[in-house]
Amino acid sequence: MVDFGNVACFPDPNFWIVEVLQVFRYLMTPLRKRMLEELQRRNYSQLTIQSYLHAVEDFARYFGRSPDQLNEEHMREDHLHLVHDRKLATNTIIARIAALRFLFVKTLRRPYVQVDLPRPKTEKRLPVVLSREEVGRLIDSASNLLHYTILMTLYATGLRRAELCDLKVADIDTQRMVLHVRQGKGKRDRDVPMTPKLLETLREYWRWMKPKTYLFPGMDNNWRADKPLSPKAIYFIVREAAKRAGITKPVSPHCLRHSWATHLLESGEDLRKIQLLLGHSDLETTSVYYAQSSVM
Q1: What's the mean per-residue pLDDT of the chain?
Q2: Hey, which CATH number is domain 2-107, 3.30.70.1290, 1.10.10.10, 3.30.830.10, 1.10.150.130?
Q3: Secondary-structure breakdown of the chain: helix, strand, coil percentages, each rounded to the nearest 5
Q4: Is 168 designated active site?
Q5: Is 214 a catalytic residue?
Q6: Which of 28, 165, 49 is nearest to 102 (CA)?
Q7: Exposed site from 3, 59, 72, 128, fewest CB < 10 Å?
Q8: Is 280 an annotated catalytic residue?
Q9: pLDDT of 207-219, one tens digit each?
């Protein structure tokens, strides 16, 4: 038996995993509460809050100690672990660095800590874009009306996955033929136009599902609940449809956003307008679609 603080841990692997996870949950409770409050005070989005808390919990789990007992040398070691052992994506590592900076500087009030964690260089890769024919096959491969409507809405509006989850029935403006995106990325509102085909699909879906608050409600214990569908569920819906459609490209919900923007550009839409529809703060971000389109 190994002494782990005040907790007795046994060498059996399964026992170790269960017990240690429970210990971390216990140890992190006061710190989680404090960090959560600091994030909420700064009006961080719910997705960012979840990401930061998960990153800190993962950091503590790796060393088997509460985060407030760790220092910059542990951060450096964890950084190398993420890069060399876990081989996480660059953007994921950058998000982890931001979470640890927040933990030590804002939550633990250690501004003197020299967080020497270099941001890894981001690979300049072109986004995956589907052809119009592939998009049609993907949407037609939906397994039910809910999935069909989700796929149609993703492509016809270019919404981000989290923005789709947060859509409410009241956000559909049939008089102006727009969807209201409330507090999207960067805490910005915007309107996205609807096509007649999308409105027809949404009406058919509403008559079938009859959602109350959220347009795409989630589940509680296998029952429909008046809460948003999870982003992970959206991801699996898209992946399942891509598999059924026989599309071998790495398709994700964001891939439909990229495809929508590229097809708009190919149809002669102004780049500045596409930027506004996508909710990009920088035109340079939108200009990547020039390299993907046939208008070059």
Answers
A1: 84
A2: 1.10.150.130
A3: 60, 10, 30
A4: no
A5: no
A6: 49
A7: 3
A8: yes
A9: 999 999 999 999 8
- Please calculate the CA angle 279-285-286 and round it to the nearest 5 degrees: 70
Token pair 């949407």 in the structure block, residue = 139
Average pLDDT over residues 185-193: 89
User: Is 185 one of the catalytic residues?
Assistant: yes
How far from each other are the two terminal CA atoms of the chain, in whole angstroms? 67
Global confidence as pTM: 0.70
Give the class (CATH, top level) of 132-292: mainly alpha
Residue 289 annotated in active site: yes
Q: Is 101 a catalytic residue?
A: no
Residue among 79, 258, 263, 280 flagged as catalytic: 280
pLDDT tens by residue, 144-178: 999 999 999 999 999 999 999 999 999 999 999 99
CA distances from 105 to 24, 230, 250 (A): 21, 31, 38
Question: For the ranges 103-107, 117-121, 125-129, 243-247, which has the lowest average pLDDT?
Answer: 117-121
